[in-house]
Amino acid sequence: MNITFIIASFVAVLATIMAITRYNLIHALLYLVISFLSIAIVFFVLGAPFVAALEIIVYAGAIVVLIIFVIMMLNLKEESVEQERIWFSRKVILGPSILSIVLLGELIYILLSHETTALTTQAVDAKSVGLSLYGPYIIGVELSGLLLMSGVVGAYHLGRQKKKVQHRFLENQTT
Amino acid sequence: MNAAIADQALMLAGILFVLGLISVLIRRNIIFMLISVEIMLNAAGLAFIAAGARWGQPDGQVMFVFILTMAAAEVSVGLALILQIYHQLKTLDSDAADKMHG
C-alpha cells in the first residue's frame, strides 16, 4: 500500500516537472495526463475510488481533450516552439523557483513538526459520497449547476467569432 | 500508517501546488499558464482528499467534486478567452494583452 503510494507520488512529481518545462504544448499535455493518472492512483490508495475514477474521466479525459482541441483550432506553427524556447530563459526561472521552494520548505517543516495520531484505514465508497452530496451539501450541488450554466453561456459568448471591430472612437488607432 | 500516508499526501499536494505556482510565474504562454492553474487546482483537491482520508469522512471527496466542477467551468471560459486573445492579437504572449496599461 505504502510503496504504491510512494511510486505514484514520485511519478506524479516527475511528470509535472516534465510538463511545466516542455517547449511543445502537446508534449506538456501528454506529461500532464501521466501526472493526472498517477494522482488518480494516489486517490485510490487513500481510499477514494470514486474520486479516482472522476479524476481520470474529467481531468485526464475532458479537460485535456478540451485544451487539445483549442490548440488544434489555434493552428500553431513550428516557430511557436522556438518562441517558447526564447521565452523560457534561465534567469526567468531562478527567482520564482527559489522563492516558491522556500515556501514549500516552510510547509513541509510545519507538516513534519507535529506528531500524528494513527487511524484505522477504511475506504470511503461512492455510496456515502453520494449520500453526503445530496444530503447536507445539496445547496452546493445546485450552486455547481448554476456555475456550469454560467460557464456554458460564458464560453459560448466569449468564443463566438465576431467581426473584428474596436471601439468606434479607437478605430483609427488600431495597429 | 494511515495517518503517515495522509501526511505524505499533504506533502505531495504541497509539492504539486508549488510546481504549478512556479510554472504560472515563469511562463509567458497563456495556455501554459492555464495548464498550471489546473495543476494547482488538482493539488488543492488532493489536499482535500488527504484530509478526508485522514478522518474517514466523505466531505473531502464532496469538496473535490466541487473543485472538479469549478475547474471544468474555469477551463472552458479560459479557453474561450484564449481564443479571443489569439484572434485579436495573433500571439499567445500574455504580456501582449496590456492595452489597458494596468
UniProtKB/TrEMBL annotation, chain A:
Keywords: Cell membrane, Membrane, NAD, Oxidoreductase, Quinone, Translocase, Transmembrane, Transmembrane helix
EC number: 7.1.1.-
Superkingdom, taxonomy of origin: Bacteria
GO-annotated molecular function: NADH dehydrogenase (ubiquinone) activity; oxidoreductase activity; quinone binding
Reaction(s) the record says it catalyses: a quinone + NADH + 5 H(+)(in) = a quinol + NAD(+) + 4 H(+)(out)
Membrane topology: Multi-pass membrane protein
UniProt-listed Pfam families: Oxidored_q3
Role according to the record: NDH-1 shuttles electrons from NADH, via FMN and iron-sulfur (Fe-S) centers, to quinones in the respiratory chain. Couples the redox reaction to proton translocation (for every two electrons transferred, four hydrogen ions are translocated across the cytoplasmic membrane), and thus conserves the redox energy in a proton gradient.
Family to which the UniProt record says this protein belongs: Belongs to the complex I subunit 6 family.
Protein name: NADH-quinone oxidoreductase subunit J
Species for this entry: Pseudochryseolinea flava
Automatic annotation (TrEMBL), chain B:
Subunit: NDH-1 is composed of 14 different subunits. Subunits NuoA, H, J, K, L, M, N constitute the membrane sector of the complex.
Protein's UniProt name: NADH-quinone oxidoreductase subunit K
Superkingdom to which the source organism belongs: Bacteria
Compartments where located: Cell membrane; Membrane
Keywords of the record: Cell membrane, Membrane, NAD, Oxidoreductase, Quinone, Translocase, Transmembrane, Transmembrane helix, Transport
Lineage of origin: Bacteria, Pseudomonadati, Bacteroidota, Cytophagia, Cytophagales
UniProt similarity note: Belongs to the complex I subunit 4L family.
Entry function: NDH-1 shuttles electrons from NADH, via FMN and iron-sulfur (Fe-S) centers, to quinones in the respiratory chain. The immediate electron acceptor for the enzyme in this species is believed to be a menaquinone. Couples the redox reaction to proton translocation (for every two electrons transferred, four hydrogen ions are translocated across the cytoplasmic membrane), and thus conserves the redox energy in a proton gradient.
Main location per the UniProt record: membrane
NCBIfam families (UniProt xref): PRK05715.1-1, PRK05715.1-2
Bilayer-spanning residue ranges: 6-26, 31-51, 63-83
InterPro entries listed in its UniProt record: NADH_UbQ_OxRdtase_chain4L/K, NUOK/Mnh_C1-like
Catalytic reaction(s) noted: a quinone + NADH + 5 H(+)(in) = a quinol + NAD(+) + 4 H(+)(out)
EC identifiers of the protein: 7.1.1.-
Gene Ontology terms: biological process: ATP synthesis coupled electron transport
